[in-house]
Amino acid sequence: MTTKTAHGPASPMTRHRTSGWLAFAGTLAVVIGAFNIIDGLVALFKDSYYLVGQNQILVFDYTTWGWIWLILGVVQIAVGAGILSGRMWARATGVFFAVVAAIGHLAFLVAFPIWSVLTIALCVLLIYALTAPPAGARAN
């Protein structure tokens, strides 16, 4: 009488799906964060750089916009690092902050139109890159 025994580990190995979109999204979040930090620093240190005649964009002055962009940029870089390390919270947070940045750049459109349109397009691409991969996927 012959018996078969199973060879291999007693518990099945969990495999994570990998997604190039998430690697792209993490890198893009870091780039958008860097762009927003640049916007913030320029707004803080050189008010005359932007094209608006008055010292206000919608409701805030340049100093307030500078701090908003600076803080948002730092958060987006941290979220980008989280996305690259495979954290699910970073994907959800990344979508939220990409929407916030796109809306903010829509308001900032009057001050610097080409840069804002570019950043809005990158935010839309980031949202797609974060939502397209299946749940549980990790950056490869």
From TrEMBL:
Pfam families: DUF7144. Residues 21-133 form the DUF7144 domain. The chain crosses the membrane at residues 21-45, 65-84, 96-129. Coiled coil: none annotated. InterPro entries: DUF7144. Keywords: Membrane, Transmembrane, Transmembrane helix. This is DUF7144 domain-containing protein.
